[in-house]
């Protein structure tokens, strides 16, 4: 062994001594341990070649290639331990002379290995692991071969349960199989995980560890899911970085073959899975050579020979009794006993071909440390940074990075722990309520305790446990230092949290005193950048390309990570980029940016953006205010003062104008801002940067067609000339910024109570992106959110908004019907309300209202500029040119005042029949300002539902797009009417929504039936037992007679409220009725979800509900793919459409859910398209709700994933085309209609075909991709679809005529 000792001298830079004598290395460590300039890193690895950049480390270098018969090296490089015996020997492997460097994220890093060594994969989308499935599907479609020369067989399943079952089957058939999942998806695999482990089957499951849905859903990373399956018998290997996700993926696949124990390879969701970093990839040739060794060839042969095969049959999966089950379970012990040895050997083999050393447990820090932190995952990098910082400042601390959690090997773990350590802190990225401690803590504590009992002379260690980083909560080096500081206390806190403020149970650690948050200890020369974008504007995608360009075309290391808020398109995105001369291992957000770009001017006022800008840094602002004078008027005083203090180099650009002039519209400014970054950063020569950026544009947008590519190229060419540098006026430094006065008890607070409190203490800080600072005490532990909180948001993301042209308006209200965000509404007012005394703005023009019941009223269409997303759908839907698009800055001031006035006018919702199109839009929408994409095709249906039945609506919502735009805290778009009534909304999971909704409906009916019995008991009781007034008796009688008829029961229910309040103390029976008064209201239960739920994962439950006969309604928002997870194929995806998980085009026809439902005969079924036929969808919803049984309403929902050529603003024309060509038929099947010669249950509302389905193919990119890539295949599939459309339509005509059976 050769040891290289390196340190940074106080004056003469980096020093290195190489010696085969480890004692000399130890001596040098002791001599320098108190030097503040000394960086005490002890990390295993290969010696860099002379002249290479040498990290400050103690390197242990194999003198020759390792052999599995050679004792394993120490995990700390100081304390040796012996390699366990019993593993097969392999021939030495040569280390590659040069590594293949590439920028990629953790998902790609792991997927590349999984694809290389697997033949079969069964996939299902779930964030954030979906990308791995998308990649293997794409590589398979491209014909990429693995190390065995095979193209992986990739099959999308209907659920994670199905993926696990198919995985189990493929393994039983002897294939090398894998899959990818996380969170609830992993939990759905648990039954099959037990089976696979019980059968000792080699397999690897790659998991992006993620939070579980508990009090709320979170897509972000922690270890709750993997810790929930630790009992299944799978080995568990944890990667701590993107590089490790690549390397340890291979270790997992090798170790499972060696051991016959299945492996769960996991890494932190988002923080590792979505972080882009420069890594060194493992060449397939090296993997192939490794797998050709006897131990692996024999393992693969053994796996195939034990497969199910009629030529050598056997039986598995039998039923056993109490006589033998126990013994068989114990028979597997030797496999698990040897599994650790196999992991060590596999790590050595991967180290041999990469030069990167891995150990199951690795110690980094002072050799004579007195305090140590133990943890798994990406947080270890932050702790390691803290360790270096503290040791450089005279402390003696260290960290043990746990890679192998199952099987646990206490002796090896203890071998990593310096003998000098007296206090240990174990950090878990999970929470197990009610336990004595989290899993890793319990494992370490048990190991230490057992060792101390077995070895009385061993020093006793004080051990504490804490929680960190749940749902990707930031974990900084300063938080790690706080943990070390806690260990230093006389009585350290034991069961603690770090990174939050727990002011309820007082279990959180205080901030670090030694290393305050924001102080950087990154390698010198590291440049940090922040890009504030708007969801859907391409900023994230552009920055992914930028960091890859930098990493691939410069000698710099690069890292990128991306933040998203809770909205769909139109939300806030923040891209965090770092690049520099040294490797970057910083798994946390940029704290102080050298370069900051703000892609939307409204962010300057809404968020404290400048708090993350380094003094003297670069600030680029996309704004229409491109002069100092206009910018001075626009920017808030606080921001001007901040700029004057920070003194950044300020640049302005109207990127919207550049994008519009290039044909990209006003939203997609990403490439404009990207070339500006390359120009100002100087990371590459601008000519080279431009060339590389254009090349990346061509690759990234080729799926969208050549026109999109050329428009982006044009935007790049025009950007630099539009950029201008601005000197910050000295006057900005003299601006006074007094604190805003807040009314101590505003009327809204009195009226709304807890709702107001929630908005002030929770919603406002969260919407300002300050949620990380909120303490525990402000939250509801159940995760409940009051209604109507989106009222606060005012996102102001639209560059252009509609302006009403009164002279052309026909008062049809269609613009309000199609608006996805309820941002444009009809307003009715009496003349006296519009005079000066009423406070009407001068610009609040109206016209005389027309229509039955509206005489004497004035009418206006009003838009809320700051809630509008600028989708332009309303102007395209208007057939009389009564709306025009105008720049936001031209009308914002006047229209904001108009909206505020209109909002104070009474809602006149009782003048027209709400079951008409116009009348429905005079009802208050009880779903408003959601986080949906601009132009969303889903929200208009749900908004209409709230206008028809909102005051009595209960919604069971499947996880998916509709749960994200409809239920992302703190934004609740479901609001209440003047009486306080509104939709009650809940989400359970994705797979169980139909059952969840059925349970709600059944439970509600049961409670109301019980209430009716109580009412009848009161009415039948003697007067002395229930002394009630005549008014109360009369109202209770009417309610009892019509309790299940909402038109009567709900009116009487309102009458009963004050009567019961007045007489509640008359008798115990009346008091009981008073306590149940909220059940007097007859609710309408709707089960809502997307096609991924209804057609795939939730179909079994949905089918059961269809067959139940219960009075429950189902609304399917059919976007024809998994919109929420990025556009993967579902069984609703049409043939030939290219989607993720269907990279070669979907080869199967769309599932006919309507036909399946109609086959029951007693289910109301409607197929609707709101954009195509306004009247039909209102009629269908009304009939469905009235039907006394199960109803199913299918809703065609255009989505941006369709790639409509003209954009979602043309969804009305696109939907009409879909209906007219027969692509999406409109019909209603009503079992309550009695069949006779002139009345039929099936009614075809799209009467005849018009045009050809080829028009749809020509208008949507999802079909055009296949036409460009495989025209003959597309032609064949399109022909099949055209034929099936005509065949279906002819069948429907027969059914509508009463000639065909359902």
TrEMBL record:
Residues 800-829, 859-888 form the 4Fe-4S ferredoxin-type domain. InterPro entries: 4Fe4S_Fe-S-bd, 4Fe4S_Fe_S_CS, PFOR_II, Pyruvate:ferred/Flavod_OxRd, Pyrv-flavodox_OxR_EKR_sf, Pyrv-flavodox_OxRtase_EKR, Pyrv/ketoisovalerate_OxRed_cat, Pyrv_Fd/Flavodoxin_OxRdtase_N. PROSITE patterns: 4FE4S_FER_1, 4FE4S_FER_2. GO terms for biological process: electron transport chain; response to oxidative stress. One of its GO terms (molecular function) is oxidoreductase activity, acting on the aldehyde or oxo group of donors. Keywords: 4Fe-4S, Electron transport, Iron, Iron-sulfur, Metal-binding, Oxidoreductase, Transport. The keyword ATP-binding does not apply. PANTHER family: PYRUVATE-FLAVODOXIN OXIDOREDUCTASE-RELATED. This is 4Fe-4S ferredoxin-type domain-containing protein. The gene is PLEST010290.
């Amino acid at each position: 062994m050769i040891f290289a000792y390196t340190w940074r001298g106080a004056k003469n830079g980096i020093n290195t001594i190489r010696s085969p004598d480890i004692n000399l290395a130890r001596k040098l460590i002791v001599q320098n341990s108190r030097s503040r300039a000394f960086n005490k890193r002890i990390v295993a690895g290969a010696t860099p070649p002379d002249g290479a950049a040498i990290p400050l480390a103690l390197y242990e270098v194999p003198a020759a290639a390792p052999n599995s018969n050679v004792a394993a090296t120490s995990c700390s490089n100081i304390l040796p331990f012996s390699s366990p015996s019993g593993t097969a020997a392999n021939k030495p492997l040569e280390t590659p002379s040069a590594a293949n460097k590439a920028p990629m994220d953790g998902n790609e890093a792991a997927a590349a290995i999984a694809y290389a060594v697997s033949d079969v994969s069964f996939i299902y989308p779930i964030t954030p692991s979906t990308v791995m499935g998308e990649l293997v599907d794409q590589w398979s479609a491209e014909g990429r071969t693995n190390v065995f020369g095979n193209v992986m067989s990739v099959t999308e399943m209907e659920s994670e349960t199905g993926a696990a079952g198919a995985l189990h089957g493929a393994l039983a058939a002897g294939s090398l199989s894998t899959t990818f999942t996380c969170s609830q998806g992993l939990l759905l695999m648990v039954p099959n995980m037990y089976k696979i482990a019980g059968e000792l089957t080699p397999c690897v499951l790659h998991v992006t560890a993620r939070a579980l849905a508990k009090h709320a859903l979170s897509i972000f990373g922690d270890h709750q899911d993997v810790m929930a399956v630790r009992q299944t018998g799978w080995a568990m290997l944890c990667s701590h970085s993107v590089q490790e996700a690549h390397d340890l993926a291979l270790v997992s696949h090798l170790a499972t073959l060696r051991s016959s124990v299945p492996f769960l390879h996991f890494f932190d969701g988002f923080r590792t899975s979505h972080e882009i970093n420069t890594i060194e990839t493992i060449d397939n040739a090296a993997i192939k050579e490794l797998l050709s060794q006897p131990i692996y060839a024999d393992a693969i042969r053994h796996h195939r020979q034990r497969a199910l095969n009629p030529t050598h049959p056997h039986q598995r999966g039998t039923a056993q009794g109490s006589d033998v089950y126990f013994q068989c379970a114990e028979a597997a012990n030797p496999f698990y006993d040897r599994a650790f040895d196999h992991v060590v050997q596999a790590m050595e083999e991967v180290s041999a071909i990469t030069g990167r050393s891995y150990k199951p447990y690795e110690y980094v820090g002072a050799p004579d440390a007195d305090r140590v932190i133990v943890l798994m995952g990406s947080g270890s990098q932050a702790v390691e940074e803290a360790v270096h910082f503290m040791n450089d400042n005279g402390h003696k601390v260290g960290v043990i990075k746990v890679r192998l959690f199952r099987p646990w090997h206490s002796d090896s773990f203890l071998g990593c722990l310096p003998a000098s350590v007296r206090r240990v802190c174990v950090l878990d990225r999970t929470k197990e309520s009610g336990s004595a401690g989290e899993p890793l803590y319990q494992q370490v504590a048990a190991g230490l305790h057992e060792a101390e009992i077995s070895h009385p002379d061993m020093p006793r260690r004080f051990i504490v446990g804490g929680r960190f980083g749940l749902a990707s909560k930031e974990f900084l080096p300063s938080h790690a230092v706080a943990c070390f500081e806690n260990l230093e206390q006389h009585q350290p806190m034991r069961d603690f949290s770090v990174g939050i403020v727990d002011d309820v149970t007082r279990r959180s650690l205080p901030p670090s005193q030694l290393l305050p948050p924001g102080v950087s200890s990154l390698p010198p020369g590291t440049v940090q950048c922040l890009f504030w974008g708007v969801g859907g504007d391409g900023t994230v995608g552009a920055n992914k390309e930028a960091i890859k360009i930098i990493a691939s075309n410069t000698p710099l290391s690069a890292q990128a990570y991306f933040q998203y808020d809770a909205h769909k398109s139109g939300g806030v995105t923040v891209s965090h980029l770092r690049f520099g001369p040294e490797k970057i291992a910083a798994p946390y957000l940029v704290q102080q940016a050298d370069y900051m770009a703000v892609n939307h001017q409204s962010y300057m006022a809404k968020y404290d953006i400048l708090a993350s800008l380094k003094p003297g840094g670069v600030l680029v602002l996309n704004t229409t205010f491109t002069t100092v004078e206009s910018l001075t008027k626009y920017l808030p005083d606080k921001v001007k003062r901040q700029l004057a203090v920070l003194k950044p180099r300020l640049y302005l650009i109207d990127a919207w104008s550049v994008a519009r002039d290039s044909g990209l519209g006003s939203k997609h400014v990403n490439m404009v801002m990207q070339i500006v970054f390359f120009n100002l950063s100087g990371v590459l020569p601008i000519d080279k940067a431009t060339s590389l950026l254009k090349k990346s544009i061509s690759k990234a947008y080729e799926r969208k067609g050549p026109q999109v590519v050329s428009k982006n190229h044009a935007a790049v060419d025009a950007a630099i000339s539009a950029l201008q540098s601005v000197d910050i006026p000295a006057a900005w430094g003299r601006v006074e910024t007094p604190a805003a006065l807040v009314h101590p008890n505003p009327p809204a607070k009195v009226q709304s109570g807890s709702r107001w409190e929630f908005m002030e203490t929770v919603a406002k800080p969260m919407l300002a992106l300050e949620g990380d600072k909120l303490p525990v005490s402000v939250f509801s532990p159940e995760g409940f959110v009051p209604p109507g909180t989106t009222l606060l948001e005012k996102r102001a993301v639209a560059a252009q908004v509609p302006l009403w042209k009164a002279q052309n308006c026909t008062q049809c209200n269609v613009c309000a019907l199609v608006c996805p965000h309820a941002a444009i509404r009809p307003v009715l007012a009496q003349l006296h309300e519009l005079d000066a005394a009423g406070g009407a703005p001068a610009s609040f023009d109206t016209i005389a209202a027309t229509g039955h019941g509206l005489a004497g009223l004035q009418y206006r269409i009003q838009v809320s500029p700051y809630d509008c997303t600028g989708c332009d759908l309303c102007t395209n839907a208007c057939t009389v040119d009564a709306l025009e698009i105008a720049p936001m800055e031209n009308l914002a001031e006047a229209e904001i005042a108009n909206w505020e006035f209109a909002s104070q006018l009474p809602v006149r919702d009782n003048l027209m029949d709400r079951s008409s199109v116009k009348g429905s839009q005079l009802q208050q929408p009880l779903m408003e300002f959601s986080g949906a994409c601009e132009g969303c095709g889903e929200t208009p249906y749900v908004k209409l539902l709230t206008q028809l039945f909102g005051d009595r609506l209960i919604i069971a919502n499947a996880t998916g797009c509709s749960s994200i735009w409809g239920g992302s805290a703190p934004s609740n778009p479901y609001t209440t009417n003047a009486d306080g009534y509104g939709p009650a909304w809940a989400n359970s999971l994705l797979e169980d929504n139909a059952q969840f909704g059925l349970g709600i409906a059944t439970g509600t009916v049961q409670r109301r039936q019980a209430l009716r019995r109580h009412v009848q008991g009161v009415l039948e009781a003697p007067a002395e037992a229930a002394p009630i007034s005549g008014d109360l008796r009369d109202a209770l009688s009417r309610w009892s007679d019509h309790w299940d008829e909402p038109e009567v029961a709900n009116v009487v229910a309102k009458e009963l409220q004050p009567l019961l309040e007045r007489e509640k103390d008359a008798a115990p029976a009346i008091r009981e009725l008073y306590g149940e008064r909220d059940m007097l209201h007859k609710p309408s239960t709707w089960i809502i979800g997307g096609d991924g739920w209804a057609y795939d994962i939730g179909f079994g439950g949905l089918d059961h509900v269809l067959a139940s006969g219960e009075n429950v309604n189902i609304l399917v928002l059919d976007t024809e793919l998994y919109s929420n997870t990025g556009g993967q194929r579902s069984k609703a995806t049409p043939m030939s459409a290219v989607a993720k998980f269907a990279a070669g085009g979907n080869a199967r026809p769309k599932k006919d859910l309507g036909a399946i439902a109609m086959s029951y005969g007693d289910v109301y079924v409607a197929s609707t398209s709101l954009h195509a036929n306004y009247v039909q969808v209102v009629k269908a919803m009304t009939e469905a709700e009235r039907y006394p049984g199960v109803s199913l309403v299918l809703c065609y929902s255009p989505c941006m994933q369709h790639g409509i050529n003209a954009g979602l603003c043309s969804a009305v024309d696109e939907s009409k085309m879909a209906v007219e060509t027969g692509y999406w038929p409109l019909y209603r099947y009503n079992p309550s209609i009695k069949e006779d010669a002139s009345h039929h249950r099936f009614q075809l509302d799209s009467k005849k075909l018009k045009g050809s389905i080829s028009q749809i193919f020509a208008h949507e990119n999802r079909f055009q991709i296949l036409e460009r890539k495989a025209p003959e295949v597309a032609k064949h599939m399109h022909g099949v679809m055209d034929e099936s459309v005509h065949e279906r339509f002819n069948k429907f005509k027969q059914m509508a005529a009463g000639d065909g059976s359902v």
